[in-house]
From TrEMBL:
One of its GO terms (molecular function) is CDP-diacylglycerol-serine O-phosphatidyltransferase activity. It is an enzyme of class 2 (transferase). The lineage of its organism: Eukaryota, Fungi, Dikarya, Ascomycota, Pezizomycotina. Residues 1-20 are annotated as: Disordered. One of its GO terms (cellular component) is endoplasmic reticulum membrane. Its EC number is 2.7.8.8. It is found in: Endoplasmic reticulum membrane. This is CDP-diacylglycerol--serine O-phosphatidyltransferase. It is a multi-pass membrane protein. It comes from Bombardia bombarda. It catalyses: a CDP-1,2-diacyl-sn-glycerol + L-serine = a 1,2-diacyl-sn-glycero-3-phospho-L-serine + CMP + H(+).
Length: 240
């Protein structure tokens, strides 16, 4: 007997609600099959596309690190770190389309989606913010708060996805809190700052309480607000 799987294609962005009679088969393959490539053989095509989303997030982090190790006036790696994030969103949407086309989804796919989204839309934007100059200890705590909000939002989605009211087709009517890919708004904001040269000492808002333990760039509050919106229980965002 087949069962309905609600799989998060973008951390709460798109649900892959498809009837998948092969889900149990994949679980059996993952738990019993042996061999060096048994994990790869058990993955669906949509799962491999989800991995590309995670790859984009990882490459964004590496590009930020390469920028930090190089000439701060050479912005190529910084622009690359920003560009990888919307590319990750493309794969995030595409894996859901492939899952529905092939009528294959899985619990493993759900977990991959959330983990990839945490890298691409949680960790990576925070690393870019660090790269452009938000580097005080208090900045670090605020950016960590943002990432942890994304982590919590994804965990809640995985637990409550089946409890959210559905329409006649089985599609969830709304998101609880803003989906984590909406952090691309932060990505766009930072890209604009980079294009205007508003980085490092020129970050908008400057720095408060300089040379004290409370030294902080006030713009990190934007990241914290976004984190609070992601974890909101009462904010219901209608699905398109």
């Amino acid at each position: 007997m087949s069962k309905r799987s609600s799989v998060a294609a973008n951390g709460g962005g798109v649900s892959k609600d498809v009837t998948d009679p092969t889900e149990d088969k994949q679980k059996v393959l993952l738990s019993t099959e042996t061999g060096h490539f048994s994990l790869i053989r058990a993955m669906h095509l949509a799962d491999l596309i989800t991995e590309l989303n995670g790859l984009c997030g990882i490459m964004s982090v590496f590009s930020s690190m390469r920028y930090l190790l190089g000439d701060p006036t050479s912005l190529g790696n910084l622009y690359a770190s920003l560009a990888f994030l919307p590319l990750g969103l493309f794969f995030d949407f595409f894996d859901g389309k492939v899952a529905r086309w092939r009528k294959k989804s899985s619990m493993m796919g759900q977990e991959l989606d959330s983990l990839a989204d945490l890298i691409s839309f949680g960790v990576s934007p925070a690393v870019v913010a660090f790269a452009i100059g938000m580097r005080t200890p208090l900045d670090h705590l605020c950016l960590a708060f943002f990432v942890l909000c994304g982590l919590t939002r994804l965990a809640r989605f995985n637990v409550t996805a089946t409890a959210v009211p559905k329409d006649s087709t089985g599609k969830a009517l709304y998101f609880e809190g803003t989906p984590i890919p909406t952090s691309l708004g932060l990505d766009a904001m930072m890209a604009y700052w980079v294009s205007q040269g508003w980085i490092h000492a020129a970050i908008p808002g400057g720095v408060w309480f300089a040379d004290t333990i409370l030294e902080v760039h006030p713009v990190v509050v934007i990241f914290m607000i976004h984190g609070c919106l992601m974890t909101s229980k009462t904010l219901h965002v209608p699905k398109p």
